[in-house]
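FAQ: What does the model actually see?

It sees only this:
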Amino acid sequence: MSEPTLSASSPAERGPSHAELAVATTTTPHAGATPPRAKKVPTERTHHGDTFVDNYEWLREKDNAEVVAHLEAENAYAAAATEHQQPLRDAIFAEIKNRTEETDLSVPARKRGWWYFTRTEEGKQYFVQCRVAAADTGDARADWTPPVIESGTPIDGEQILLDGNAEAEGQPFFSLGGMAVSEDGNLLAYAVDNAGDERFALRVKDLRTGELLADTVEGVFYGLAFSPDGERVYYTVVDDTWRPHQIKVHVLGTEASDDVVLFEERDAGMWTGFDLSPDRTELLISVGNSEYSESHTLDIADPDARPRLLLSRDERVLHSMDPVSIDGRRHYVVTSNRTPHVEKAPNNMVSLVADAEFARPFAEQEWATVFAHRDDVKIEGTAVTATHLLVGLRRDTTERVQILPLVGLGTEAQSEPVEPAFDEALYTASLAGADFESPLVRIEYTSFLTPPRIYDYELATGELTLRKETPVNGYNADDYVAERDWATAADGTRIPVTIMRRASVAADGSNPALVYGYGSYEMSMDPAFGIPRLSVLDRGVVFVIAHVRGGGELGRSWYDDGKKLAKKNSFTDFIAVTEHIVKAGWAAPDRVAAMGGSAGGLLMGAVANLAPQLYRAIVAQVPFVDALTSILDPDLPLSALEWEEWGNPIEDATVYEYMKSYTPYQNIAPVPYPKIAAVTSLNDTRVLYVEPAKWVQKLREVTTGTEPIVMKIEMDGGHGGASGRYEGWKDRAWDYAYVLDALGATEKV
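And it is asked to produce this:
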């Protein structure tokens, strides 16, 4: 593929502007701050006849006191080098806090005989999970209309299920990995992580007494479900590589060591999980990767039942299923990228399949088409109630919901789908809840300018009722603009670009700009409101999202064109977007910063190598910057699962050479790198801290520039950083202050 078209000049070649001089005076590191230099311990790695010498691989030894001391020295250096940014961080944190309704609550959602909701309280870090009894009057609409509950005011009969603040007390970290309430409403199962490594402890609480049962299961993963009788809890277990591979059942009152493995997946490249069916009678067990999957069903009403295969991985169908009963017969709504009679449907189609069909050979099965494949519409998934099918889809990059009755589904009598309409051009409308018995379904709506709204959609009438819009203090949407633009890649591909700014900011070529990107796993950077982002916009910064290939904004082909041997498209797209906003006048060429996290951190490392002169600063959050090393070791967390995303460099020399050519750590060059901040967490299991630790060391060693390169590591955090909402706000304030300081945009406009 072609190399990126880079700018012919750099700020240094043009001479410093007044803005550059102003920036330089505000970003000098604290006097005497010296970046830590790790010792070199050469480690050789040889694959396909190629030997790579890694001087910093020893930093992987997490329990080595010398490594811990080095990481603490990195934190000390980052603190010293950015000490002058603390007032700005404090200001941004205060702005986030002041704009947020700290004492607030969610719109109650009904499950069986209860209304469930969450509260937040001013000064407290975590959610409080609550419920109140629901009424059954015989008027379905009234019975499913949520009660009006005021923030900060308990109501009669309110019961606290779980107070995250109490759970977190005395712990370095707190995160919930799932909650489930038994059918009779008497028991709560929940999973807690107190380290940040996403390995949870399962606990069970008797909601009648508030007492914890003796049952505790360590090392569980996300997702919990009770059996209908409330005597068993189903959960998932990860292996040593953090791959969910087993589904087990715990019988209350027994030892965890006696828990039975109901399903085990031994293929290191396959991920296992389950969903409880909407009617709460079966578990849908899914095994898969990004290219194909397999489905099993488990009758959870029968304690002796074992999983039954529905659709085998041998058919190489990427799919998901929702069970539904129609005319007394069990069917499955299948979203898939092919069917027995349609060979290719890359954007997915929806079919209705009778349960009995899965006993027949795949080629002979009858699948009735519900939604045919379209090149301009991506089907994201489905959900069902007792009466309706709900379809999440993406059209014109925008996620939306369509709804149609089950009556006549998959036949000529099938109704036309209805799509709730909204006013904005760029928005996200997604299903937020669809209880099986409910005559209403819940839709969450948000945009770059609209705080999250909760709507209830009445299935019988199509009436859309606004239940709540998240309050944002002192916010006026008219002060801001969000619009879609398009950049052109070197190969002629048009790349969607989102441009957010204050309404007073003009395309006059003088603005500071922050370009954000991700571009992996078919994840789309969909329109969503963010309070912290307002602090950036209010300082005159143009906030840009580069919707690069590798994401899912324009359907499956957009993803396929940015993965495996096409991965470099993600990087060159990001550079093309950066050049586009400068050419269009939205950004001054010497006042552009870049930010991305996780796989987006890989993107940051790649563009730093390809076009360092385009950016004044780069923030790489939990960055996947040593991808080749990680993917070459199937014993590391997630590595084998990643082969369907990046290719398998162990078996394929072509993949090895391709990954070697872009992995940031292996492509650091003697060029003047911009300011770089790597932000990571010690207990992150998705991107190990060692990747940014090594990257930062080599950057400092090789760069020909003088800009500071720092690493901030959360010693008690995971992939999302520290736990607790206030700590999260501090993290965002740190990242944004780093960018604003580098861009000379510290004052509000």
